[in-house]
């Protein structure tokens, strides 16, 4: 019964002199981040190949309990209409081979599918899942509304996940769509994040939550309270959830994660806080 917290990145200009010192070189900030958080989304693998040497440098910066959650390259997840199945499969197996040396510190690898990939393409998703050969988990994030219909399509999808012990990545973008966009970061989030229903269903042992917080921080309590209830249920079932917290500009994402951790302690899901944020310079000046 464990929970891991992470961000969508381990570097942010606003986190300097908070999560890590300005004296820490950028190439070593992952180690400082990993002193606070226990996981991270690695989106860089979605956009371009990452050299084996770079992957191992990251691997060596974190302790044995830390978990990397890599995103599947877009030529696998997003280009199926333009490429043959053999080409996709070759890249899929090659990507898995790339991750193999990192197995001891791998969390679920995230297969994030495009919003245009509809329910009729479920066989393609199943084919990818059936070619997963690593001993570490695979998770799938769908964005087409077919997979949220609470009918035959979603039922078939969830059944297939459960049979293969693959978890659905649960996207919660409700906060950023709860108000009109009144600043640039909120407008950017509304343009880039999928507006899909939040169906918090676990189909395997490691459910992933991607929570996209509202920049007006107090507004988030209503959704974080709901997640505290659901995560407590998962923990009581013996599951090991991973929660990745975003915000519209990601500056306050660590704070939102800490608030969720507080709520899980308050409702008895955790016996003590798992996420201890360092004091800000402003806070330290008051001591």
Describe this entry's structure for a reader:
There is one protein chain. The chain is an alpha/beta fold and 287 residues long. An eight-stranded parallel β-sheet has the order 3-2-1-8-7-6-5-4. The two termini are 36 Å apart. It has helices spanning 29-33, 44-47, 52-61, 74-77, 85-99, 122-130, 152-164, 184-192, 221-236, 253-266, 281-284; strands spanning 4-7, 39-42, 67-70, 109-112, 138-141, 167-172, 208-213, 242-247. The longest helix is centred in the last third of the chain and has 16 residues, at 221-236.
Low-confidence segments, given as residue ranges, are 281-287
Spatial separation of the terminal alpha carbons: 36 Å
Radius of gyration: 19 Å
Number of helices: 11
Strand content: 5-15%
Biggest sheet strand line-up: 3-2-1-8-7-6-5-4
Short description:
With 287 residues, the chain is of the alpha/beta class.
Which key terms come to mind for this protein?
287 residues; alpha/beta; 8-stranded parallel beta sheet
Topology:
Blueprint: E1 4-7, H1 29-33, E2 39-42, H2 44-47, H3 52-61, E3 67-70, H4 74-77, H5 85-99, E4 109-112, H6 122-130, E5 138-141, H7 152-164, E6 167-172, H8 184-192, E7 208-213, H9 221-236, E8 242-247, H10 253-266, H11 281-284
Parallel strand pairs: 1-2, 1-8, 2-3, 4-5, 5-6, 6-7, 7-8
Helix pairs in contact: 6-7, 9-10
């Amino acid at each position: 019964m464990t929970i891991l917290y992470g961000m969508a990145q381990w570097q942010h200009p606003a986190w300097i002199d908070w999560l890590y010192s300005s004296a820490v070189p950028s190439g070593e900030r992952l180690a400082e981040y990993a002193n606070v958080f226990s996981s991270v989304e690695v989106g860089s693998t979605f956009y371009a190949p990452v050299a084996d040497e770079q992957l191992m440098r990251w691997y060596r910066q974190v302790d044995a309990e830390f978990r990397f959650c890599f995103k599947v390259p877009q030529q696998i997840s997003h280009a199926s209409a333009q490429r043959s199945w053999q080409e996709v499969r070759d890249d899929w197996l090659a990507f898995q081979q790339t991750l193999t040396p990192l197995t001891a510190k791998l969390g679920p690898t995230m297969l994030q599918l495009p919003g245009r990939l509809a329910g009729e393409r479920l066989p393609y998703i199943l084919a990818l899942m059936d070619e997963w050969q690593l001993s570490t988990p695979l998770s799938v994030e769908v964005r087409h509304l077919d997979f949220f219909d609470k009918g035959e399509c979603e039922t078939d999808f969830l059944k297939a996940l459960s049979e293969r012990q693959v978890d659905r990545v649960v996207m919660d973008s409700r906060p950023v769509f709860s108000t009109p966009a009144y600043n640039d970061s909120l407008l950017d989030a509304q343009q880039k994040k999928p507006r899909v229903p939040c169906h918090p269903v676990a189909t395997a042992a490691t459910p992933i939550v991607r929570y996209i917080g509202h920049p007006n921080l107090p507004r988030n309590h209503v959704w974080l309270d709901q997640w505290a209830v659901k995560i407590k249920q998962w923990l009581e079932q013996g599951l090991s959830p991973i929660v990745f917290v975003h915000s519209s500009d990601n500056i306050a994402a660590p704070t939102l994660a800490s608030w969720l951790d507080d709520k899980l302690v308050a409702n008895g899901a955790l016996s003590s806080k798992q996420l201890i944020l360092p004091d800000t310079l402003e806070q330290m000046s008051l001591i």
